[in-house]
Write a structure and sequence with these properties.
Length: 201
């Protein structure tokens, strides 16, 4: 219990630090007069608040590892990559983001299955169904994201996909690879019965 509390406290500190960084960036770029960066800083705060609202509204608390993964993903993609311009500093950063998103979405798929299966302790999920659902959910969302990028590029003149089918397919492959790797990891955990969510009925 203490370890779990400590992990949650660490996530709280991490999230608070992200609020502070976003607020500092907002003020800095407001003074500098850079509208795009100002909006990005506001969006970071908005996303962090939205996650808390969704968790509270759905009454589906995230376990510490998933929460940390999501916070780290937001930090890398929205703060480092977009707000601070690290895309030009770290090669293939976008591909690592898609790879990592496959990991996160697998765990989100497990949460969805747990919610659909019932929240009572006596209701024990079926490991095989949970694993397949999390895998396919993650792969499907990789495709949905590319549909979103294509739509915004087409209608708003953006360049999220670099006008390249290769970029689109590489992103989907990276997301799928992350999902497969996570599913293999979860399968091993299920066989050793070290993850209660995956215990067989």
């Amino acid at each position: 219990m203490q370890t779990k509390v400590q992990k949650d406290r660490g996530n709280d500190i991490f999230e608070l630090a992200m609020y502070v960084i976003a607020a500092v960036c907002f003020v800095y770029f407001l003074i500098k007069g850079v509208p795009a960066k100002i909006m990005e800083a506001a969006l970071i705060i908005g996303v962090l608040v939205l996650i808390r609202v969704v968790v509270k509204f759905t009454k589906t608390p995230m376990f510490a590892a998933l929460r940390f993964s999501i916070l780290l993903f937001i930090f890398v993609t929205m703060i480092l990559a977009n707000e601070l311009g690290f895309y030009s500093v770290i090669p293939y950063l976008d591909k690592f983001e898609h790879l990592f998103s496959g990991v996160i979405l697998c765990f989100v798929g497990l949460l969805i299955y747990k919610k659909a299966n019932g929240s009572e302790e006596k209701s024990v999920p079926n490991a095989r169904v949970a694993l397949w659902l999390s895998l396919f959910f993650s792969i499907a969302m990789a495709g949905v994201w590319e549909i979103y990028e294509f739509t915004t590029d087409y209608f708003f003149g953006l360049n999220s996909q670099n006008g390249s089918l290769v970029d689109t397919m590489t992103d989907i492959i990276c997301g799928t690879a992350g999902a497969i790797a996570t599913t293999i990891y979860l399968t091993v955990k299920a066989k050793h019965k070290t993850m209660p969510l995956l215990d067989e009925k």
